[in-house]
Amino acid sequence: MDCIDALIMGIVQGLAEYLPISSSGHLEICRSILGLDLSGADALEFDLTLHVATVLSTIVVLWHEFLPLCKSFFTLRNDANTNYVLKILLSCVPVAIVGLCFKDVVEGFFGGGLTIVGVCLLITAALLYFAYAFRTRPDSAALAEGHKERGHDITWRDAFIIGCAQAVAVLPGLSRSGTTIATGLMLGDRRDKVAQFSFFMVIIPILGEALLDIKDMAAGSSVTAETIGWAPLAIGFMASFVVGCAACRWMISLVKRGKFVWFAYYCVAVGLLCIFWNMF
Q1: Burial level of 279, CB count in 10 A (0-12/13-18/19+)?
Q2: Residue 130, C-beta contacts closer than 8 angstroms, at least 6 positions apart
Q3: How far apart (Å, rounded) are the C-alpha atoms in residues 183 and 134?
Q4: Residues with Cβ < 8 Å from 4, sequence gap 6 or more?
């Protein structure tokens, strides 16, 4: 992988992490188009590097919301912010189980063909369409009270179900943001609340996996940096971070306006293209 390839991959990750089109699926598509031959483990670790960059962009963009959560949680305050963090922790349990128990299985889906990506993109499209069809709409009573939309805040049950959706969305082509936000909308959660929750809930598993990856590199059991190169890793990281900062703000605005259905059409088109690409 050269620096131009890494730059392209970083830009794609920064955009696709927040847009409901599957960043992992689009990274797989880029690998095929660019002719990058990486093993499943190397592909997954490179993707993780780019995901860490977009996680950091989330923290930067949502800093004013993120800092009060940290203050409440780490000072053991019994308030709404602490409960919110605990819901985030609960949502991370399913993906932690998948990461610890089925990592080898997940790695097998990366660096392979585009058929699985195409199928998962079609599933993403279906989820986005159903979320659009069952989205919460404002009613006269809600508008009279000054609320832009009806719906409820995320409950403990909702947090766990959304966490299960995130665990399934480790497959390339199944959009994590799209799957979790669509699940929250179908559960009746408010659009602005579920978008923010979706972006926050990925921070812990990605940074946790990154720490384990750093430990492996320090112990010499990971050769990804030597396989790909430190310069491409750094360029991909920076591109993903910068583009991610812009895409995060854009995505929150799109969710509030309920503009998901257009991404469903896009996922159908790209999903079918991936399937036909692999056939021929």
Answers
A1: exposed
A2: 182, 186
A3: 10
A4: none
Nearest CA to 166 out of 51, 37, 264 is that of 51
Looking at residue 145, the DSSP 8-state letter turns out to be T
Among residues 279, 275, 280, which one has the least CA distance to residue 120?
A: 275
Q: H helices of 62-172, where?
A: 63-74, 80-101, 103-107, 115-133, 140-144, 156-168
Judge if pTM exceeds 0.85.
Answer: no
Residue 101 vs residues 107, 115, 163: alpha-carbon distances, Å: 12, 25, 16
Burial of 141 (0-12, 13-18, 19+ CB in 10 A): exposed
Token look-up 């079609």 returns: 122
**In whole angstroms, what is the distance from residue 36 CA to residue 126 CA?**
30
CA angle, 170 then 176 then 180, to 5°: 120
Query: What is the pLDDT, as a whole number, of residue 11?
Result: 95
Please give the structure tokens belonging to residue 54. Answer: 């977009």
* pLDDT tens, residue by residue, 109-161: 776 678 889 999 999 999 988 877 766 555 444 444 555 555 788 999 999 99
Strand partners, 189: 152
Higher per-residue pLDDT: 256 or 184: 184
Please tell me the distance from the alpha carbon of residue 203 to that of residue 191, in angstroms, as a whole number.
Answer: 20
